[in-house]
Amino acid sequence: MDNTIGVLIAVVSSSLGGSAAAVTRYLAGNADPITLAILRWGIGFMLVLPATLVLRAKFPPRGDWLTVAALGICFFGLFFVFYNIALGYTTAARASLALATLPVQTMVVGALLGIEPLTVRKSFGVAIAMLGVLGALASGLAAAPEGAWRGEAIMTGAVLCMAFYNVWSRRFIVRSSALGFLCVGMGAGAAMLIAVGALTGRVAVLAEFNAAQWAAGAYLGIGGGAAAFILWVLALQRTTPTLVANTMTVNPIAAGLLATQLVGEPITLNLLIGLGAVFAGIWIATTDASIALKAGAKYTRSS
Hints:
single chain, mainly alpha
């Protein structure tokens, strides 16, 4: 039951992340990648910190702080700068399709580190979900901006940061709490981004934002920052890294649906069929979770 709840939480998180991709694409012409990341994680951290304190969430032990902060800088700092760079080259849907390689990369990293074993059923579920993404976006993949391959290549490489974050996070989350772990990591990433933004003068562009752009920026921080990643670490606390990562296949579907509102892309039959395949793949992979959960528990006890 806990495993199913974890996957459902991750689905909501990935949906918020997909909508944030469309909003980032909307803002990409008005702000650089670092400024967009500052908006997302600066606002996000301002919400996560008081929530952590009010709920008296357990922070990581002092001995874990450096590692948790390093994970946060790698993920909330480096990954999302590359994420925003990628969205400057390609569409939200195409970039999110590259982001949907996360389940495969997480499975490979988890297996290489001996943390989570591969199984035929889990691999099949991930494959079905990714085929659903391809089917959903097939009609729009041909209509790509010039040089879109650069954005997709950057996004695919950046996803490796998130794969390691997923695999390495669980051991630190169980020694503290989901909120406490998130607060330290997001705070470290946001601090690095704000320092870079202040030193380079990039944040000056925010003074030129209009009301609609500030509303989009606020959504990045509230929905795509605080809410999405509170839910993400809660999911990692309850189930395995691969099962959480597999819900990332919902991300491009959500990005495509919101893009219909922001840039007028149509909702197609491919999109609806692909959405069904995505959820079928998630279900197939989730029902094979018992062995992986036992392996994760064994790894946690030995750490």
